[in-house]
Structure prediction request, 103 residues.
Amino acid sequence: MFAFPFKVMERTTRDAMFSELLEIIENEKVGDIVIGLPLSLDGEDTLTTRQVRNFAASLERRVDLPIHLVDEDSAQLQRKTNSRRPDFGTGKERRIWTARQRK
Prediction:
């Protein structure tokens, strides 16, 4: 399985965000969803971690796909070694990653 960044989405409303995300999932024939999990340095949950877990739970109610929560420290290390690393933007943007099964 390969995971790679797809695009940066502007966050407007929750409904609009999920609508756009579901459209991407369908159009790109996504097989799995990978979400970065921002743990504290000691590996504990933070407020942001809980928000990401809530987002994943909301997404899970809307899709019938495997959702993988990946420690962002590992994800950042992986991105640093990827020479095709895109610009993710800042502010009210949500990073969207897709994963496709290699056959």
Observations:
- Residues 83-93, 98-103 have pLDDT under 50 and may be disordered.
- Residues 42 and 73 are 11 Å apart (CA to CA).
- DSSP finds three helices and four strands in the chain.
- Residues 2-100 form one domain.
